[in-house]
Amino acid sequence: ISLRMSLTNLHISVFCVAEIVAQDGWAVRYFSKYICAPKGSEVTMRCIYRYPKGHSVPKAFWTKEWGQGSEPPDLSDNPEYRGRVQYLGDEHNDCTLRLSDVREKDQSKYYFRFITDKPGGKNQGRGGVDLSVTDLQVEVPERVIEGDKVTLTCKTTCRLTVRPTLTWHRNGHRLSSRTDQFHLQPVSSEDVGRYHCGVLGQNLLSPEVTLNVRYGPKNISVSISPSGEIVEGSSVNLTCSSDANPPVQNYTWFKGTSLVAEGETYTMKKISSVDSGEYKCRSSNEHGVKYSTALSLDVLYPPKIASLSISPSREIVEGSSVTLTCSSDANPPVQNYTWFKEGGSSPVGSGHSYRALQRGSYYCEAQNEQGSQKSAAVTVSVKGI
Ligand SMILES: *[C@@H]1O[C@H](CO)[C@@H](O)[C@H](O)[C@H]1NC(C)=O
Ligand SMILES: *[C@@H]1O[C@H](CO)[C@@H](O)[C@H](O)[C@H]1NC(C)=O
Ligand SMILES: *[C@@H]1O[C@H](CO)[C@@H](O)[C@H](O)[C@H]1NC(C)=O
Ligand SMILES: *[C@@H]1O[C@H](CO)[C@@H](O)[C@H](O)[C@H]1NC(C)=O
């Protein structure tokens, strides 16, 4: 015995000596009794064998059947294995087999069998190699809420004998993880997508699984229709929109702090000046509530009920005057006040106030871009006349 024998050789030799003693010099040893391999991968079934001195081996092959009675078929003659099975062993003591592009149908026990040139010289390795073939499956938690710590797992149906390097993909784009787990901690709505895992360097991919992330309302905004100036008497829609998953359940409208309506769109028909104010919408689903920023609604209207006040009295003392003041509510505010004296055709003055020096009936007209309004007339008399 060589003293420079490697540890592996030593191990094999010891094993073979034991087998020879137990089995009259006939032995087959499989290095793995069980192999779990991913679909499409290449599997090597390592194997060594021994036979009594003086024999030589004209036939050595693998088979899926336990040989009793008739001679079991050689795997390499099986059309289903054509081009995929390769005997790496020899006619002396190595019986290693390589099977490539493994398929689900390959799940079976595999036995090495050899025949020698001496009468009765046959042996088949007991137990065989049990091959399981697995595909990949991405496991996603059932209910994922934004902010959760989520782990996606690439599952196999058996525990892989050789741990491969895995790959992860979202919507077809490669992700960084190389293990059987992909962590999303915390998960966000941007992680939504179709995921699959695969084996690096092999054409094996799991089916795609969709990750759905639930979240409360976000990106809430209010729009107004028609846009631009809102004129009294017109019809206006306020519409709230917000992104949420599941979609927003309830939209609620507030004017200031009072609730004024429910629903995505708040319609105000024949809008009036009292509808001016700050509006907000609230959107909610089962995961949260969100308020929009306030939208300021400014309803435009022409001057209303122009009124005249007079100071100090309706009577002018000879040589003095009274001041007439016109006021009116309008949006935008009154731009022009124009003064008229009844009976006259042209204005007698302009501005907020008018100093009347003569008797007569006066009225004002308030005007903004929306329209105009005339006041009732007041009569100014001169004392003693
Ligand atoms: C919010 O809306 C803007 C503009 O529509 C969009 O670009 C952005 O992606 C949205 N954000 C989210 C979280 O949906
Ligand atoms: C407001 O919404 C209603 C219903 O969707 C629609 O019929 C109407 O034309 C809208 N009005 C405006 C001013 O957009
Ligand atoms: C939506 O409104 C309905 C009826 O008012 C209420 O029962 C439900 O709880 C509301 N849902 C949310 C998420 O606020
Ligand atoms: C205000 O009144 C004056 C005089 O009548 C007129 O010339 C001017 O156009 C008016 N301005 C507006 C904005 O109505």
From TrEMBL:
InterPro entries in UniProt: Ig-like_dom, Ig-like_dom_sf, Ig-like_fold, Ig_sub, Ig_sub2
Domain Ig-like positions: 131-212, 217-296, 303-381
Signal peptide: 1-22
Superkingdom of origin organism: Eukaryota
Keywords, sorted A to Z: Signal
Name assigned to this protein: Ig-like domain-containing protein
